[in-house]
Automatic annotation (TrEMBL):
<protein>
    <recommendedName>
        <fullName>DUF4352 domain-containing protein</fullName>
    </recommendedName>
</protein>
<dbReference type="InterPro" id="IPR029050">
    <property type="entry name" value="Immunoprotect_excell_Ig-like"/>
</dbReference>
<feature type="domain" description="DUF4352">
    <location>
        <begin position="52"/>
        <end position="149"/>
    </location>
</feature>
<keyword id="KW-0732">Signal</keyword>
<feature type="signal peptide">
    <location>
        <begin position="1"/>
        <end position="19"/>
    </location>
</feature>
<dbReference type="Pfam" id="PF11611">
    <property type="entry name" value="DUF4352"/>
</dbReference>
<dbReference type="InterPro" id="IPR029051">
    <property type="entry name" value="DUF4352"/>
</dbReference>
Length: 160
């Protein structure tokens, strides 16, 4: 009985930690702005980009990029806001995104991190982060949204 209670408490603690999302929601008025602002914070660089694309009835925005250099690799955190303007639920996940870098290589999400993914109810917004690891020398990337065989959106971003 004690093992069952201990197991239940452990699972509850895990779910509580996973449910906490540190990403703040952005105001709806700022979504159509295309801007770039870079802030250095110790070993991390923060870059506000606010780049929006419409795919079908979904508005997708790359809001912010956080860069950290670890062992000659750039660890990128791309923060997204996805708004479902349709009348049905839509599912989205970080696995539908990839990076095509200026070194002609393609990079997939870093599966060791907790990347976003969920179903978005009609007229609701999902915010979350996708994580990538790329070589330190990369200065320009294309963030590509391709849920199936056809590329549906791409954002060209210069990394600062």
């Amino acid at each position: 009985m004690k093992k069952l209670i201990l197991c239940a408490m452990s699972m509850l603690a895990i779910f509580a930690l996973v449910a906490c999302d540190p990403t703040p929601e952005e105001g709806a008025n700022d979504k159509q702005k295309d801007s770039t602002k870079v802030v250095n914070e110790g070993t991390a660089k923060h870059q506000d980009v606010k780049l929006t694309k419409n795919v079908g009835e979904t508005e997708m925005t790359v809001d912010h990029i956080k860069q950290k250099i670890i062992k000659k690799k750039k660890h990128l955190e791309l923060q997204f806001s996805l708004t479902n303007h349709s009348s049905t639920d839509k599912g989205f996940g970080a696995n539908d995104f990839r990076i095509e870098a200026d070194d002609s290589e393609t990079y997939r999400i870093d599966g060791t991190k907790v990347n976003f993914g969920d179903v978005i109810a009609p007229h609701k917004t999902l915010t979350g982060s996708a994580y990538f690891v790329i070589p330190e020398k990369i200065k320009s990337i294309n963030v590509v949204y391709q849920p199936e065989e056809k590329m549906e959106a791409a954002w060209k971003i210069d990394l600062e």
